[in-house]
Amino acid sequence: MLLLRLLPLLATTLGAPLLQETPGQRCGLSRYRFLPPQELRAVKRMKEQFEDIMLLSDHRCHTKLFYRKWNPAELSVPDRVMLAEAELDLAISMLELPAAPTFAETRQRPLDFLAQAQEDLRSCMATEAPHQPSRRLRNWLQKLQTAKETETTSCLEASVILYIFKVLNDLQCAALGEQCS
């Protein structure tokens, strides 16, 4: 018991925090370390329904937006947060597009989940010191911006939905902080 009372004093004396938090823990991203099964099922249902719809239309893309030669675990933690935020921003904007009533209903739960995650990420980014993205991330962000300007909306929508689990994995990696591998 005495040791517990002395820990803050010891930490102050040493000039460093005794228990270091990762950015994900400090700003509330820890809830995304393990994604809720009900949310994953809702995303899976949405993706499967979209794949059925997609058979009837053309969603060709010139840009392989979610193809990267690097793994998000290779990025710094602040870069991972920026990556997840950029992907969520694209995903949400595509899922908010007008859709057939049945698909609009199916996508609502994943959309709500992603919007909450984006809000949490943005609040984390607001509390952190400004960060300059690495060259890898900067190049990918430029590729994303170019795709937004040159690709069709249907291409971007298809890319997001078909690779939605990659977006969720990147969110999870950002939440895991240094523990992401």
- Low-confidence segments, given as residue ranges, are 1-25
Count of separate DSSP helical elements: 8
Radius of gyration: 19 Å
Describe the biggest sheet?
A: none
Number of strands: 0
Distance between the termini: 37 Å
Considering DSSP H and I runs of 4 or more, what fraction of the residues is helical?
55-70%
N-to-C SSE series? HHHHHHHH
Oligomeric organization of the protein chains: single chain
- Structural class comes to mainly alpha
Mean pLDDT: 84
The 3D shape can be described as: globular
Strand content: under 5%
Describe this structure in words.
The protein is mainly α. The chain is built from 8 helices and no strands. The model is unreliable at 1-25 (pLDDT under 50).
List strands and helices in order, with pairings.
Layout: H1 2-14, H2 23-26, H3 37-54, H4 77-95, H5 101-127, H6 135-150, H7 153-162, H8 164-176
Helix pairs in contact: 3-5, 4-5, 4-7, 4-8
Short description:
Helices cover 66% and strands 0% of the residues.
Could you name the key traits of this structure?
181 residues; mainly alpha; single chain
